[in-house]
Write the structure tokens for this entry.
Amino acid sequence: MDHATKNPALRRYRVRVLVAMAFYALFLIVDLWIFRHAHPDRMLACALAILPALPIIGVLAIAGLYLAEVNDEFQRAMTIQSMLWSIGGTLAVTTVWGFLESFAQTPRLELIWVYPIFCLFVAVSHQLVKLRYR
């Protein structure tokens, strides 16, 4: 996803992601404060625990919107390729880690880290896909 000045879909994508991440940070801060100070009952705790996940789910939808809105087929193809590599990388890492947990007593990988692992792979794979077409 490059050339933001020439790509209005990319500009919209970036603004939407920034807004979603602002809500994520806000919800996470609120959750941390409430869980530290108020000790909510189970029902409220479940609702609060889900709250920070909603903007992350929103970012996934925002990525889909970007793919639908971008007019440049080449940019769309590069984005899809980097996302596919990222899905594969995330699946590989989490699968290997799962076997390490099962057979080698490796510490448990908290599921909350799967999305950041995916994002890391997106950042790396997008740069590699760009290099491929230079």
